[in-house]
Amino acid sequence: MIRQYRTELPAKHRQDWQTVRLLLPYLWAFRGRIGLALLFMVAAKLANIGVPLALKAIIDDLDSSHLPETVMTLPLALLVTYGSLRLATSLFNELRSIVFAVASQSVIRVVSLKVFEHLQQLSIRFHLNRKVGGVARDMERGTRSIGQMLRMLIFSIVPTLFEILTVTGILLYQYRPAFALITLTAMLCYFALTYAVMNWRLKFRIRMNEMESMASTSAMDSLINFETVKYFGNEANELHRYHHYLRQWETAAVKSQWSLALLNIGQGIIIAIGLTWILILAAQGVVQGELSLGDFVLINGFMIQLYIPLNFLGSVFRELSHSMTDMERMFELLDEEPEIKDAEDAIDLPAGPASVRFEQVSFHYQAERPILQNISFEIPIGHTLAIVGHSGSGKSTLPRLLFRFYDTSAGTIKISGHDIRTLRLHSLRRSIGIVPQDTVLFNDSIEYNIRYGRPTASPEEIIAAAKDAHLDEFIEQLPEGYQTIVGERGLKVSGGERQRIAIARTLLKNPAILVMDEATSSLDSRTERGIQGALQQVTSKHTSLIIAHRLSTIVDADLILVLDHGQIIEQGRHQDLLEQGGVYAELWKIQHRKESGKNEQ
């Protein structure tokens, strides 16, 4: 059984130059350092090209000198020049590395922050449709590939191209055109072959990326659901699923490798033919007296300086192609438009107490499956409204609409008279606090998770919030107290303790509007009774929306709505609904009998 994951983004393959163009604004911000690195690169290459020229002069001078004093003066100066050029080459290369490192790492940091910020702004629908492991892998590969691409451009491709043009110009100026023509022809054949084969091999890299993301997602999903795997004894199935993606990755990787071998063979043939041809011409020139021995050494030195980098340039182009593919997937994340975003004329929600109003609100995830239909209600400032209903009635969709994770399909939601679509998202969500049904905590300390409600809170305020949530006694029993790590998703603490941390976090936020989405569903009756007084005290100070599982927690609500299949079928206060003898009364009887049975036991 293989579960399919949608980790890949829509296929919108762009040309490499388009990918680089997207990176240019980030590079432009550090143009000074990048420009300085390029200057050091040019200086290093000029010094490197000067080495064979100095060696030619030394050999020619030694070959033509007969007087001892001449040998001790001119060649000595040339030898010092030769050594100085070698030193200058190394020095300028290292200066280039130092200057470029700062620019490269800064670009990676800025792009990483940009992508992460964009992911935070994308709608909840995007994140529900994607697997975290795949998206994280695409982001990691993309940001890493930026550094690789910049290093290859600054340290390999640009220097090699500069050296090719400079050497070709020197050959054309000093010697017969045939030397420059052969050099250029060999280079053009080399680059044409490399470009053609790299484009052909690109599909293998894309497939490798897809399968690597699938494998990463599969492993992460299995480890996150570790207990579920153990409950059902499905370790073998998880291993088979992971192996399935690894095998497909392996197949693509093997094809990529043998296609690379073919490319290397072709490149080697071109280099060998070009180098041999030029050296034959140079040797003929020496024999015929057209060239000196120093000229032969110079031409040979130039060819070695050109062709040795070309041996590595093939792998550089391969890695550059891979980097472009990885960067493209990362930039496709930036192409995703946020489904929910601020209007151009959005305003901040005024601070202070707030009312909530739903006006004929309807919502659906899919057009053929409505979740809410014509929901209307109002929660005045300081009042409490409770929502009850069977599972799947649409109760938990209401907070998502209130937070504007989704926009309504029809109707309007207003806070203090303002349509929430006219409010800035940060301002809107800052004014609402929620204790969700399923609390997920950060893999950090209890203090960090409580402080998350208001990062600027003092230690005293954190302790006060923990006491209000009846969490302080539990924390005091822990050896590390508030610094206790709660584990991945908070799994090191019980469900009830996670819920109390969530309550403390929301109390610390102190929002104008409080949402309790079955906030006590994970608590035992004793713990629930212990914090019920605190919850009632808190809700009395806020405009509160309570989605209730246990009806005993909402008997004091100002208004209770009963939902069924996305519609309000009953509404009123607790006693009124009991007297009506409808769905609410039936739910109350069922829960009352269960509670009575537990008490008798």
Give the total of domains.
3
N to C succession of SSEs = HHHHHHHHHEEEHEEHEHHHHEHEEEHH
Structural class: alpha/beta
- The low-pLDDT segments are 4-13
**Shape descriptor:** elongated
Please give the order of strands in the largest beta sheet: 6-7-8-3-9-10
Query: Beta-strand level of the residues, as a percent range?
Result: 5-15%
Proportion of helical residues? 55-70%
Specify the CATH homologous superfamily of the largest domain.
ABC transporter type 1, transmembrane domain
CATH architectural arrangement of the largest domain:
Up-down Bundle
What is Rg? Answer: 35 Å
Major sheet attributes: 6 strands, mixed
Explain how this protein is built:
- A hairpin with a 2-residue loop joins strand 4 and strand 5.
- The chain is 65% helix and 10% strand.
- It has 601 residues and is α/β, with parallel strands linked by helices.
- The protein has three domains: 16-335, ABC transporter transmembrane region fold (Up-down Bundle), CATH 1.20.1560; 346-431 and 511-601, P-loop containing nucleotide triphosphate hydrolases (Rossmann fold, 3-Layer(aba) Sandwich), CATH 3.40.50.300; 439-509, Rossmann fold (3-Layer(aba) Sandwich), CATH 3.40.50.300.
- The protein is elongated, with a radius of gyration of 35 Å.
- The strands form two sheets. Strands 6-7-8-3-9-10 form a six-stranded mixed beta sheet. A four-stranded antiparallel beta sheet has the order 2-1-4-5.
- Helix 3 (68-121) runs antiparallel to helix 5, helix 5 (132-174) packs antiparallel against helix 6 (177-224) and helix 6 packs parallel to helix 9 (293-335).
- It contains 18 helices and ten strands.
